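Assess this one:

_____
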Amino acid sequence: MWGRRRRLPEAVACALPPTNRERPLCWARRRGGCWLVATACGLWEWPDGGTPQRHCWCTIDEVRYSAGVLTVRPRPPQEPLRAELLETDSGLAELVRIMEAGSRLVELAFRLPSGSRLQVTARTCRFEGSLVWSTRLDEAAGADPAADANLARALLARARQEYGAIGGDGTGQLAPAGRAGIPTDAVVPS
């Protein structure tokens, strides 16, 4: 085992864009013949006979790994990628979880007056200079969806104002725009 290095199959390696950013970090074959390859920029999915598709780390909303099945839920909400990995010792599941978590720069959670929960998240990919803000609203029973949506928009605008934009030095670090932060897990006054 020591000294042996696994090699990505040539056909899969040739399909990657020829940049250092897309250097394969970890990979595994999934049941059904598809390859999954993690790079610094995202998770590539190669269906047999199909076109490769990249899921950038900043567009992945959730990652779960249980009993050999890797589930990746992309954003905007669409059908999650569920992969039964044939090579469970490849380290792919752990690397995907680490890269997805590393893309989160800001995470704020609010309990709204209606009892609903709001999560505001800013994500980035290490090698792409954009900052992606998103919200997830879990409505409580009996909540007013319109009122919750309006409050969610206001809190998202406040977060963008307080936390600013991504740093211009390409580090992916946020440049704070204001002095005071938004309290997390706070009850928002009505």
In short: Confidence is low (pLDDT under 50) at residues 167-190. The chain has two domains: 10-102, 104-187. Residues 20 and 134 are 29 Å apart (CA to CA).
